[in-house]
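Fold this sequence, please.
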Amino acid sequence: MDRLVNTIRPYAWGSATALPELLGQDPTGEPQAELWMGAHPGDPSRTDRGAGPRPLDELIAADPEGELGTATVARFGPTLPFLLKILAAGIPISIQAHPTLDQARAGFAAENALGIPLDAPRRNYRDANHKPELICALDEFEGLCGFRPAAEAAALLAGLAVPALAPVIELLSAGHEPEALRRALAAILTMDDATAADAVRQAAAQVDLAAKEDPQGPYAAYARITREFPGDRGLIAGLLLNHFRLHPGEALYLGAGVPHAYLHGVCVELQANSDNVLRAGLTPKHIDVPELMKVVVFEAGAPDVLHPTPVDGTPGEELYPVPIDEFRLSRFRLDGTDREIDGRTPQILLCTAGTARLTGPDGTVLDLSRGESAFLPATGTPTRLSGTATTLFRATVTI
């Protein structure tokens, strides 16, 4: 068992207080957006096995089968397949979508061939992996996810009474729905700058007015965007997407190509080990419209909120089911009774409420408090859990 020392990424959209509060630290006054737990080379966790701190990716690379297990390496390769995060959004995060595995491999190879540095602002693909993800709310969490039905999006835009949006509304109202959504998003993102600036200005004024008149109405969530991203056409693009709100413990799975943006709140995020993002707005970062349009899946549908279900054979464990095997997220609610977890796969345990004690097969003990995490190599032997943690997340793979 390895206690992890993790890096906080200070993206501009991060909350200045949420992560420090969770970790029991003093705020720095700067945004603190994501706490990374895992072996992504961009910011690997570190641990000390007696010879000083070492990055987790280096430890795994030195002995993949010893750290990950033979079955995990055979199935997913010699790297940890997942990345666990705590995400704290103080302001909206960019509207974005992630590629499929084939798209990521092709895009990564193409940008390498062009000689684009991995840290270049115009780089789309920073690795050759896909990035499906699962978010689980730690507090009230708001965001946008997936396309509204085209008719609903058209009605929402029409309600703003902005003349410059008439062509977009017309596109949403004609033809096969996926193609209507595709043409509408393309029209928004490629609108000439002067027209877009005027449309966004008028739309923002109408959104703010509607939100004041009806704080629970369909435009209320978008008022946060008008405050934080004035003049950004992502406001209009965001009106094509469903608004969602998760209560603590509820989760959402986002597969490849699903457009989404997180507006506010704190969540645990478990994803494939990747940092590939194609953006559509609400950001000063690079937006590659043609590449984005290749990646986005233009299907309408309401977000499917997930609730955890009990795991047969493991008392106290509840699973958030997802349709892939590269990551598996469950949680324990410990009540002082000893629990036992299987040790055949690599896993990260994260405590977000209370205290948990991990006891290895050799009697080694590791205590986790709120905000602390541990890496458990695939030893093949079980680990015992005890304590009173009301929420202990378990991230691993499915073999």
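The first strand starts at residue 2 and ends at 3. The chain has a mean pLDDT of 96.
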